[in-house]
C-alpha cells in the first residue's frame, strides 16, 4: 500500500493453511460474510483463543463471494472517486481499553496510522478496502496454529441441521454442504425484493419504456441508462445520493475549479443527466464536524444509561420508542448540549451551571424547554430536536427557482456552523448520540425513525461533498425539490411534487431511489435468511432478525436462542450506529463480537472435550 506506515509485526501462527471444504473430524465454525463484521468476529476469535481454546484444533470457514476484509461494500475494486464517510483517524478495526468486554484488548492501527494519511483525510474506499484486507491477514497471523481458516468464494444459500447437532451450510454450486458445529451470520447490507410501491413503479417503467432504479448500493447500480441532459427524479438525500452525484458528474468527466474568492465551480462534461432531488426532510444530511474537541467532555451517560435501559427492559409489553424511550434520549442529548454550552460559552447563558443542572435533572418535556428558554437567550443556542429533524416543515416557496437560493443558503450555513468551534455544543450532541446508540443496542429493534435521525445528524457527508453539491446546483445540474417528496407515475412519465413548493411538480422519464434497501428478513433476496425465517427464526416488527443481546445467538419465535447459530450486523435487531468504530468510544460492535466469540469458543471447547472423552 503506497504510503503505509509500518506497524509492529504480529506473532505469526499457522492460520493461513487451507483445510478441506468438507468435514475433517475437527470442530468447525462457519462464518457467512467476510466483510468488516465477519473479520471483526474472527479477530475476537484470535484474541480470545489463547484463554478459551488453547491447544485444540478448529477449522474456520469464511464464506463470501467477495474477498475477505472489504467484502462487497468495501471491496477494493470500485471507483476511486468514492470516499469513506469518516475521517481516517475515526476508523479502526481494533479494540482498546474503552470497550466493555471480557476478552483481551488486541491493539492495532487506525486507518490513518496504517495508511500514513493525515488523520482528517476522508480516504477513498479503495484505501479502506486495502486496510480491511490487511486486518484480515493480520488476524490470520494472530490465530494459534491449531486454528485453520479457509475462504470459500461462494454464496451461502441455506443453513440446515438439528438444534442439538451439526449444522449444514450449503454453498451455491456445490453438491455437498459444509459441516459446522457453529454458524455465524455476518451478512452485512442485503439486497431486497421490491415492496408494493417499488413493484408498481418498476412495472410502470417496463410498460412505458422508462428507467426505474430501485434502492441499491450505488456502486453496484447500472447508471448507464441515465442519459446526458435528461431529467432524473432522485428520491433520497443521504449518502447514497452523494455517491450517485459523484458517479454521474466527475464519473462522467466533469470537474471542479475554485475561483480566487474561494467559490467552487463545476465545469460540466456534457454527459451529465439533470438531477432533481427531494426527500422526507428535503435537505442533505448535516456536514461532518470539522474541528476537534477541547476541554471537559460531558459526563455520559447521565440520563440514558444502563439503569434506565434496565428499567425499560423490565416494563411489560412492547416498548414504543417515541413514547417510552425518546424522552430519555432527548434529555440525554440535551444534557450533552447544555453541559458544553455552559462550560465553553458561558457568556451565552443567563444562569449558573449548577442551578441549571439541578433544574434540568428534575424536569421533563415542556419544563426542560421552558428552562432552556429562560437560561439561554439565543434560540440558536438551544437544543431543539424537532426543528433539527424537520427543518423545512414550515417553509413554503412559490417556485422551485425561489427554493434553490433558500436551500443553498441553508447548506452554506450548515457547513460554516459545523466548522466553527463556537458552536461546539453540536459536537457534544454528536458524542451524546454515540453514547445513546451504545445503550439502545440492548433494547433491540427501536424502529427506523431513530436510525434516520442519527444518520441525519451524525453520519452526513464531508464538507467538500456539500460544497460540490452547491456547485452542481449553481451549474444547473442539480435542482432541489423540497420536503415530503411524493412520486407518482401517470401519463407516461414519473412526476414528483413537494410540500415545500405547493402546486408545482417536475416530470422525468427516469426515477432513482437513492438509498439502501431496508434490511427486512422477509423481503431479503438472501435465500439463506429467507429459509431461516420460514423455519421459525424470530423477526422484529420492523423485519430484523431477532438475536440474543447477550451473545448474538439467533432467537426462534418462542424467544429461545439457537445453540449453534449466531448473527451480527445490520440485518439484526442488535445493529450498531455505523460500519466502523471510532477509537476510544467503547464501540458496541466490538463488545458484541467479543461476547459472541467467547460464547462460540466456550461451546466449541466443551464439544471438543466431550468428543475426546
Description:
- By secondary structure, this protein is an alpha/beta fold.
- The protein has 3 domains: 28-191 and 519-612, 3-Layer(bba) Sandwich (FAD/NAD(P)-binding domain); 196-285 and 461-513, FAD/NAD(P)-binding domain (3-Layer(bba) Sandwich), CATH 3.50.50; 306-458, no CATH class.
- The chain is 35% helix and 14% strand.
- The protein is built from 16 helices and 19 strands.
- A 6-stranded mixed sheet has the order 3-2-1-7-19-18, covered by helices on one side. It has a 5-stranded parallel sheet with strand order 8-17-9-12-13.
- Strand 4 and strand 5 (167-171) form a beta hairpin.
- Helix 1 packs across helix 16 (588-612), helix 7 runs antiparallel to helix 12 (425-440) and helix 11 packs antiparallel against helix 14 (463-474).
- The longest helix is centred in the last third of the chain and has 25 residues, at 588-612.
- The radius of gyration is 25 Å and the shape is globular.
- The two termini are 48 Å apart.
- Mean pLDDT is 92; it is low at 1-23.
Amino acid at each position: 500500500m503506497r504510503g503505509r506506515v509500518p506497524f509492529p509485526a504480529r506473532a505469526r501462527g499457522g492460520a493461513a493453511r487451507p483445510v478441506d471444504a468438507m468435514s475433517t473430524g475437527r470442530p468447525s465454525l462457519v462464518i457467512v460474510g467476510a466483510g468488516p463484521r465477519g473479520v471483526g468476529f474472527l479477530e475476537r476469535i484470535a484474541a480470545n483463543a489463547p484463554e478459551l481454546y488453547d491447544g485444540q484444533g478448529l477449522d474456520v470457514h469464511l464464506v463470501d463471494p467477495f474477498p475477505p476484509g472489504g467484502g462487497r461494500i468495501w471491496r477494493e475494486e470500485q471507483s476511486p472517486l468514492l470516499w469513506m464517510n469518516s475521517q481516517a483517524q475515526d476508523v479502526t478495526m481494533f479494540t482498546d481499553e474503552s470497550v466493555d468486554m471480557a476478552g483481551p484488548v488486541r491493539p492495532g492501527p487506525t486507518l490513518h496510522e496504517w495508511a500514513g494519511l493525515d488523520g482528517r483525510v476522508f480516504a477513498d474506499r479503495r484505501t479502506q478496502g486495502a486496510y480491511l484486507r490487511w486486518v484480515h491477514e493480520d488476524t490470520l497471523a494472530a490465530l494459534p496454529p491449531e486454528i485453520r481458516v479457509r475462504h470459500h468464494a461462494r454464496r451461502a444459500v441455506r443453513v440446515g441441521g438439528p438444534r442439538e447437532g451439526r449444522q449444514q451450510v450449503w454453498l451455491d454450486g456445490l453438491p455437498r454442504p459444509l459441516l459446522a458445529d457453529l454458524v455465524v451470520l455476518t451478512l452485512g447490507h442485503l439486497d431486497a425484493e421490491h415492496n408494493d410501491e417499488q413493484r408498481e413503479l418498476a412495472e410502470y417503467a417496463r410498460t412505458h419504456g422508462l428507467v426505474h432504479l430501485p434502492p441499491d448500493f450505488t456502486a453496484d447500480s447500472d447508471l448507464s441508462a441515465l442519459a446526458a441532459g435528461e431529467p432524473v427524479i432522485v428520491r433520497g438525500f443521504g449518502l447514497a445520493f452523494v455517491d450517485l452525484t459523484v458517479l454521474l458528474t466527475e464519473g462522467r468527466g466533469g470537474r471542479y475549479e475554485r475561483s480566487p474568492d474561494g467559490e467552487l465551480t463545476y465545469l460540466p462534461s456534457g454527459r451529465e443527466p439533470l438531477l432533481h432531488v427531494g426527500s422526507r426532510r428535503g435537505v442533505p444530511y448535516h456536514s461532518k464536524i470539522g474541528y476537534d474537541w477541547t476541554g471537559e467532555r460531558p459526563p455520559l451517560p447521565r440520563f440514558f444509561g444502563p439503569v434506565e435501559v434496565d428499567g425499560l427492559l423490565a416494563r411489560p409489553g412492547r416498548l414504543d420508542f417515541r413514547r417510552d424511550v425518546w424522552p430519555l434520549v432527548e434529555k440525554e442529548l440535551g444534557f450533552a448540549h447544555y453541559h458544553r454550552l455552559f462550560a465553553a460559552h458561558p457568556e451565552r447563558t443567563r444562569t449558573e451551571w449548577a442551578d441549571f443542572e439541578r433544574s434540568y435533572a428534575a424536569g421533563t418535556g415542556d419544563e426542560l424547554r421552558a428552562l432552556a428558554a429562560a437560561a439561554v437567550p439565543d434560540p440558536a443556542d438551544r437544543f431543539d430536536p424537532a426543528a433539527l429533524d424537520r427543518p423545512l416543515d414550515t417553509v413554503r416557496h412559490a417556485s422551485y427557482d425561489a427554493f434553490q437560493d433558500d436551500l443553498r443558503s441553508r447548506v452554506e450555513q450548515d457547513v460554516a456552523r459545523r466548522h466553527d468551534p463556537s458552536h461546539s455544543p453540536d459536537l457534544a450532541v454528536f458524542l451524546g448520540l454515540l453514547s445513546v446508540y451504545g445503550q439502545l443496542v440492548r433494547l433491540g429493534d427501536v424502529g427506523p425513525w431513530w436510525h434516520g435521525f442519527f444518520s441525519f445528524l451524525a453520519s452526513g457527508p464531508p464538507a467538500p461533498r456539500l460544497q460540490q453539491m452547491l456547485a452542481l446546483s449553481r451549474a444547473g445540474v442539480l435542482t432541489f425539490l423540497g420536503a415530503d417528496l411524493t412520486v407518482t407515475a401517470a401519463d407516461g412519465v414519473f412526476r414528483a411534487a413537494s410540500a415545500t413548493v405547493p402546486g408545482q411538480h417536475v416530470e422525468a422519464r427516469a426515477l432513482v431511489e437513492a438509498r439502501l434497501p431496508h434490511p427486512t428478513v422477509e423481503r431479503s433476496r438472501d435465500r439463506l435468511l429467507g429459509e431461516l425465517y420460514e423455519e421459525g427464526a424470530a423477526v422484529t416488527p420492523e423485519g430484523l432478525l431477532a438475536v440474543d443481546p447477550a451473545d448474538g445467538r439467533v432467537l426462534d419465535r418462542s424467544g429461545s436462542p439457537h445453540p449453534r447459530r449466531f448473527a451480527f450486523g445490520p440485518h439484526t435487531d442488535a445493529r450498531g450506529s455505523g460500519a466502523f468504530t471510532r477509537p476510544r468510544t467503547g464501540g458496541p460492535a466490538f463488545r458484541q463480537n467479543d461476547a459472541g466469540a467467547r460464547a462460540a469458543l466456550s461451546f466449541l471447547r466443551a464439544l471438543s472435550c466431550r468428543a475426546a472423552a
